[in-house]
Input
Amino acid sequence: MEQEIGHAALDKQGPDRDFEAGSAVEKQPVTMGAAQMNGYMTRALGLTLICFTTAAVGQQPDLPKPGTEHKVLEESVGTWDCTVKMAESPGESKCTSVSRMSLGGLWLVTDFEGDFGGIPFQGHGLDSYDKTTKKYVGVWVDSMSTGPIVMEGDYDARTRTLTMTGEGPGMTGKPVRYRNVTTLTDRDHHTFRMYQVEGDKESLMMTIEYTRRK
Output
């Protein structure tokens, strides 16, 4: 009799316990927080991007390589002592120019430093040959302006002259047309002339004589 009463009590308590346990589960469902979900999504997107990039890289064409045109730029590699003469100012300034080939040998990087009339001056140039346009291209920035001078041009192998034309800020800040002519006299001497172009007329702004430092 005691065993029957015990079983009956257990049978009564069992469903109640199951119901209460089930209620506890229902009251505290397992959910994924927003932060955790965002973390999973971020990792998934990151893996997708990596896979896509890897596939794209595997399909890209061969990277460009320096050609014969870049040999012209290589002639300016080195350290140069420069004498600057302004067309409208007496006297001359002494400066230093250091050039090197960079970015896989595709770009000539130049750092120019000195003073113009006692004013400290720094300039930075990037020059290359664009195989798409078949033109030499250049960008020049310096400490006297917040805007770049962007140019393009051609090289005359007969006269060993590189002529570049383009536009950049003038002394007043307004856009001005320029023409730069660099003559590669020999391995150790170059001459640079900069002209300002106004319509059909142009005026010489400066001349820089480069002598390779040995």
User: Anything to note?
Assistant: The mean pLDDT is 81. The domain at 68-212 is CATH 2.40.128.20 (Lipocalin). The beta strands are 78-86, 93-102, 107-116, 119-130, 135-142, 149-156, 161-169, 175-186, 189-198, 201-212.
